[in-house]
Amino acid sequence: MATRHESIQYKGKVIEFPYDNQAEELIPDEELHEHLAKPTTDRTKRLKDRCRWKHATAGEFVEESVRAGIERMRLLTEGHKNSEGKPEVLRRAMILANILNKGTVVLQEDEIIVGYHAESPNWVPLYPELSYMAVQDYIQSRYAPQPVEEAKEINEYWKKHSLQAKCETYFEPIDLLRMYQVSTMEAPPFATGYNSMIPPYETVLEDGLLKRIELAEQHIKKAKEELSAPYWNAPERLDLVPKIDNWNAMIIADKAVIAWARRHARLCKIVAENFETDPKRKEELLMLSDICQRVPAEPAVGLRDAMQSKWFTYLICHAIDRYASGYAHKADKLLWPYYQTSIIEKSFQPMTHEDAVELFECERLKISEHGAGKSRGYREIFPGSNDLFIFTLGGINRDGSDGCNDCTDAILEAARNIRTTEPSIVFRWNPKGRLKTKRLVFECIRDGLGYPSIKHDTLNTAQMLYYSQFSKNNNGATIEEARDWANVLCMSPGLVGRRKSQKTRNEGGGAIFPAKILEITLNNGFDWSYSDMQLGLETGDPRKFKTFEDLWEAFRKQYQYCMSLSIRAKDIARYWEIRTLQMPFTSSIDDGCMELGMDCMELSEQPNGWQNPITSVVAANSLVAIKKLIYDEKKYTMEQLVEALHANWEGFEQMHQDFKDAPKWGNDDEYADPIIKRFYEDILSGEMVKITNYSGGPVMPVGQAVGLYMEIGSRTGPTPDGRFGGEAADDGGISPYMGTDKKGPTAVLRSVSKVDSGTQKANLLNQRLSVPIMRSVHGFKIWLAYMNTWCDLNIDHVQFNVVSTEEMKAAQREPEKHQDLIVRVSGFSARFVDISTFGQNCIIARNEQDFGPADLEYLGVEF
Amino acid sequence: MQAKAKSRSLDIRIQPGISQSCQKCKWGIEDPTDPARGQCIGSRTKIGSIWKRMIHDYYNSTCEKFEEGEVSFRDHV
Lengths: 863, 77
Prior knowledge:
heterodimer, A: alpha/beta, four-stranded parallel sheet, 22 strands, B: mainly beta, High-Potential Iron-Sulfur Protein, Chain A, two-stranded antiparallel ribbon, 5 strands, 0% helix, globular
C-alpha cells in the first residue's frame, strides 16, 4: 500500500490527504514509478523497448554496445587534406560536404523521424579537430574506433591542426596544468571539445535552404557589382572579399545538406519499394521519402515536415559539423504554426492531437539514442544520462501574449507518457501562463521526471535586454526579441530566433569551483589534498589573517585569478574558432550572418557571457562557520582549523561538530544569510562582471551543479562547513547543502530570495518534495501556491525531485526491476539505476521537504 | 605557512618502468581531461565517497596498495 500523508490541523480544520488517483493507494511506495509510463501507441512502446540508450556514468557508457565510429574523423581528415590551400571557411564547407556526401545514411524500423550521425546507431562520432586529448582517451578505451591504428594516425595529424593545439601556445604550462586539473576551474572547451549552441531553426523551417542559397547568391552578385564599379576604393570594398568567401561557403554547405537529406529520401524509397513487406509501413516510408525530398530544402508546411527539418538541422549543427551539447530551442513557439496546420486546420499532413503526442514521443526517443562523442570528463559529470539535451516551453510570445498553446500541452503529455530521461524541459513561468498547461507541468513533476525545471520568465527576459546594451554592433535584442529565449543548456538563457542566438560555448559556459578555491586559499594557494601542487596564487598564510576581511580578500584574489584565466582561455579559443572552425551551414541559417556576410563564430550581436560557479554553498557555509567560530566568538584559532582540516577532522571531533553545527544556508537564518548574500553579490557576481568577454559584455554567474558537485567534491579536501574530504558538495547553484535545510520549504525560499537575482545570470534551486503530498488531491493546489510565491519572490529557478526514499532503496537492491525510475540530479534527469551507489546515496540524502501548517499559511493555501 | 605545508600521504611514488603501475591498477583511472595523467580512486570516506588523488606520472607511479582488476561504475563517484 502507498503511504498516505498524515492529516494536518490547519486554520481550525482537519485536512486529509487521500490520493488524487485512488487506485494508486494500492501500489506499494517501492514500485510507484514502474506503473507510470503509458506510451501513447504500440510504436512508441516498441521504440522505447529497443531504444539504444547511451547513458554514461563514471566516464563509462552503461550499455555494452556503444563504440566510437571512425567514419566522421576519417572523412573530416580527408576533406581537410583535399582542401588545402583554399580559404579556411571554404575548407570547412568542403569538409562538411565530404562528410555528408560519403557518410553512412541510417534508417531504422518503426521510425517516423529519420537520420543519425554515425555509421551505426549504436556508435558515437569523434572530433579530433577540437581536442586531441579527448580523442586519445577514446583510443585508449574499450570504445576505440576501428581500425585503431588508423584512428591513431588521424589523431596524430590533428595534434598540430586542432583547436587545442592552436590555443595551448598562448598559455604558460603551469596555467594549462591548473586548468586541466578541473578542481578550481573547468578545463577550457579547447581541451575537451565540449560545446553548446542555439541553431536558428526558425529560418530553416520558415524559408527552407533553397531560399537561403538564393539569398547568398544575391549577396555575392551585389558584392561583385560593387567590387567592379568605377573608382576602386579599398577601405570601402576590400572587406567584400571575405564576405564573398563566407557566402560561397554557405552555398556549398546548404547544397550538401539538401543532398544529404535527399539521400535519406532515396533510402526510404528503396526500402519501401524493394524490402518492406508491411503495407502500412511501406506507406509510411514513402511519406518519409517525400518529406526528406522536400525538407529542409523547402519550407516546412505540416508538423511532420517541421519535425524532420528540425531534426536534420539539429544533427548538422550539434553532431556532424561540430559537436555541441544541448537541444536548445523554444519548441512550442517553433512548432505552433505547423501544429495549427496539421492538427487544427488539417490542411496539410492532417493528424489528431494524439498523433502529435506520438510524434513528440518519437522525438524524445531519437534524442535518447543520440550519441554524443564527448570526452571522458563529460561522460563523468552527467551520471545516469546521455548528454544535456534541454529545450524550453511556455513563457510569453514576442507580442507579450501567453506562449502556452496546445502544442505545449502535446509536448508535455508526450514527456509524461513515455518517461525518458532525455530531453529535459525548461518551463518559463509567467503569471499569464494558462492553468491547463501549468497542470501538465505539475503532472510531469509529480510523476518524478525531474522536469520541467522552472525559470522565472520576467527576470530572464529583462536579462536579455540587459545584455543587449553591450552589443558590439548596437543590434542587441529588442523587447520583442528579448521575450524569445530558451535555455542554452540546463540553466542559462539565450536568445532564439532567426538571428542573434549563441553559437559557441566560448561565449558562455564553463565552471568555476569556489569550494576548492577556498580550500587552496586556506593553504596559500597550495593544493595539499588532490594534486599536490601550487594551484593558485600565493595569497598569504591564513593563520596570519587578522580579520575575516583578510580571508575574504584572499579568496577574492584566488577567484579572480581563476575567472580571468578561464575567460581568457575561452576568448583565445574564440579567436581560433573564427579562423579555423567556421560553421558555414549555421551561418547560412542566421539572418545576421547572411546579411553581413560573416561567419557565426565571428558575428556576435547579443552578448551572453557567463561562467558557472559550482560548489558555492560549501564555500559560503564554510565562510559563515569561520567567521562565527574563529573571528566573532574566537572559540577556535585559524591554526587549529588548518590542523583539523589537514587531519580530515580526525582527532578533532568536538571541533568538527561545532563547525558542522554552525548556521547553514536555506534556513532563513539571520546570521548566515547576510554573509552568503554578500558572497554571491560581492564576489561570485561582483568579481565576474568586472571581466569583459569577446562579445563586449560582462560575464555573469550561472550557479548550478550538474554531476560536478560530486566529482569536484571528490577532488576537494575537508571544508570548514564540517564536510569530510571527498564528500559531495552542494547540489545546486543556490541550493542548501543536502540535509541542512531543516526549517521547511518556505524557509528555503526566503533565504534564496535574499540574493538579488538581478546580480546573477541564473541560479539553480534543487528541491525534493513529498510524494504523498504531491500525489494527493491537494497536490496541485499546494504546488501552485508554492510556485506563485516563488515567482513573487523573484527567484530565478527551481527544479524538483518527487521520489520516495523507499523506492530509491528498492532500486538499489533490485536495479533490474526499476528501469523506469528517474531522478533529478541537477540540471538534468537520470535513470536512477545507472548512477553509482555513491551518487544514488547523495540523492537519497537530500532533505525531503514536507509542508506544515506554517508553510501552507505563508503560501496562502486555502482548503 | 609555506606552500609545501602539507600533502596527503597515500604513498604514491614514482618508479620509472614499474610493471605494477597505477595505469594497470584497479584503483587507477585516466584523468578525464588529460589521459596522459591519472587519478587514484582507492581512498574511500566513511559514507562511501571517493577522495581522489591526482597521479601526475600515471604510467610510472605505484604504491603498496596495487591491485589488479576493474572497478564497476557502481563503485565510482
